[in-house]
Amino acid sequence: QKEVEQDPGPLSVPEGAIVSLNCTYSNSAFQYFMWYRQYSRKGPELLMYTYSSGNKEDGRFTAQVDKSSKYISLFIRDSQPSDSATYLCAMETSGSRLTFGEGTQLTVNP
Amino acid sequence: NAGVMQNPRHLVRRRGQEARLRCSPVKGHSHVYWYRQLPEEGLKFMVYLQKENIIDESGMPKERFSAEFPKEGPSILRIQQVVRGDSAAYFCASCGPDHFYEQYFGPGTRLTVT
What we know:
The complex is a heterodimer. Chain A has no helices and eleven strands.
């Protein structure tokens, strides 16, 4: 079983839709939860990080962590064509490396 | 305010040759991580270094791969006697002390082994 599971998609939505991206994990030691965006043939770009359970909002993006269910989500409101990318969840135990999901490919259609 | 820099961006090597990948972290960052992204796969951790020290190399293949982060100069990921299976995108990330959750990635080096 992989430590982090992420539906690879692809996911295609119309412009303006609310997008929900999700990951599940098995390692209860994970404390920090990150979301990265990766455009084709570019490096991953950090969108948000969350420590432990709870919600965090940044503009059109909201990250949620439910440690009891080992489940994290990223919501994108009012999605734009420029949001079309691969979204990677990542998790980290304190002071250590990142463990990534395989990424969900998102296309927002104008 | 330069971000993480990696060079070369593209590298082509024949089987059996050596590949050297360079990474200059964000100015002021003393922690460097290397990750590998194989085609159609997610990012996999390889090695974590601080200046002059390897902290965690548990993701590195046991043979042919080595990494360093000298006191002066960039971090280097070295692959000896490359094979076709080494073809991948190699990414470097850096962060400051006590900010392990804020790793900033470079643009990557795409290695092709022919």
